[in-house]
């Protein structure tokens, strides 16, 4: 078996027999990240901390971690890759909603890539003292990343809901067992 055949087989398994488990693992990562942003928001608006003091859960014991642009970029990349590789398992309107989430994440990933490049080169947009994304010129960073994550997460949740509760017509086209019924294989 060639490397291409093995990788195709792995991706096929992720989107068929392993789809439910892969989505569960992916959602744990997504929700953990949400927890970080929500904790940071509570620290700022609930506890009155400055954005520099509000470091989320992981940033409290590891303050250097949240200051690393590569860490934020890596998460954006993981989100993008997850949305891409798990996409083939979705059909019908669930696929449309998953695609909306993917499209928004493409932009979110681009913004993080832009921040990472500025961090690595030391050249910041418009001479700002810190790396700055495009939309960050309008919306402050903490609020912007809450917004981006919400814009990616909400269509993802709609997609997952529709995927787990498909209509009979959509269920007949599904190749995974996320909805609890094994797909039928027609022998012609």
Word description of this protein:
The protein is mainly α and 188 residues long. It has one domain. α2 runs antiparallel to α6, α4 packs antiparallel against α5 and α5 packs antiparallel against α6. The longest helix has 30 residues. The radius of gyration is 19 Å and the shape is elongated.
Report the β-strand fraction as a percent range: under 5%
Q: Helix/strand/pairing class, anyone?
A: mainly alpha
* SSE series: HHHHHHH
Residue windows where pLDDT falls under 50 for at least 5 positions = none
Number of strands: 0
The shape is elongated
Helix segment count?
7
Give the radius of gyration: 19 Å
Transmembrane segments: 70-86, 146-164
Keywords: Membrane, Transmembrane, Transmembrane helix
Quick gist of this model?
Keywords: Membrane, Transmembrane, Transmembrane helix. With 188 residues, this protein is mostly helical.
Give the SSE map.
Elements: H1 3-15, H2 19-46, H3 63-66, H4 69-85, H5 92-121, H6 141-164, H7 168-173
Helix pairs in contact: 2-6, 4-5, 5-6
Keywords: Membrane, Transmembrane, Transmembrane helix
Transmembrane segments: 70-86, 146-164
Keyword list:
188 residues, mainly alpha, 7 helices, 65% helix, 0% strand, elongated
